[in-house]
Amino acid sequence: MPGGQKSDDVRLQAVTMIAAGTSYGEIEAQLGVSRRTLSRWLKEDDFREALADLRSLAVEKVTDKLAGHLDAAVETLVRAMSSKVVHAEVRAAVELVNLYFKANEMGELRGRLADLEQRFKEQDEEETFR
Fold first, then answer.
1. Considering the entire predicted model, what is its pTM?
2. Contacts (Cβ under 8 Å, ≥6 apart) of 67
3. In Å, what is the CA distance from 38 to each residue of 13, 18, 64?
4. How far apart are CA 19 and CA 51, in angstroms?
5. How many CB atoms lie under 10 A from the CB of residue 33?
6. What are phi and psi of 3, to 5 degrees?
7. Spatial distance between the Cα atoms of 67 and 70, rounded to a whole number of angstroms
8. Residues whose CB falls within 8 Å of the CB of residue 114, separated by 6 or more in sequence, listed in order
9. For residue range 97-111, what is the model confidence (pLDDT) as tens digits?
């Protein structure tokens, strides 16, 4: 990201805070960076790429954690299917399975989107050199 060391540090803190879901107002208060500056940074390719990378890492972390509980969720569903009683436990297991597949699908879609963006970028560069 362009700028001096201090500027780079602030930009890194800002992109990390945005990825974590911090409001622009809170970022402005903590870092002294105006909403206008944040909006300008969000238009820059390197800033958007850093934000996308951080969000992708967060999705991977959640997906991995959910995957670690998937076997237990399936076992709960199997036990509950023969119990003839619907428990909150079953609803939680179903939701856990759904969240896992949604998060996994989102990760795959992000990867596919990144591939497409790279292809378009390469095509643009090829056309620029013609």
1. 0.58
2. 100, 104
3. 12, 9, 31
4. 6
5. 19
6. 120, 175
7. 5
8. 52
9. 888 898 889 889 989
DSSP the chain: --S-HHHHHHHHHHHHHHHTT--HHHHHHHH---HHHHHHHHTSHHHHHHHHHHHHHHHHHHHHHHHHHHHHHHHHHHHHHHH----HHHHHHHHHHHHHHHHHHHHHHHHHHHHHHHHHHHHHHHHHH-
Residue 118 CA to residue 110 CA, distance in Å, equals 12
Residue written as token pair 């500027």: 7
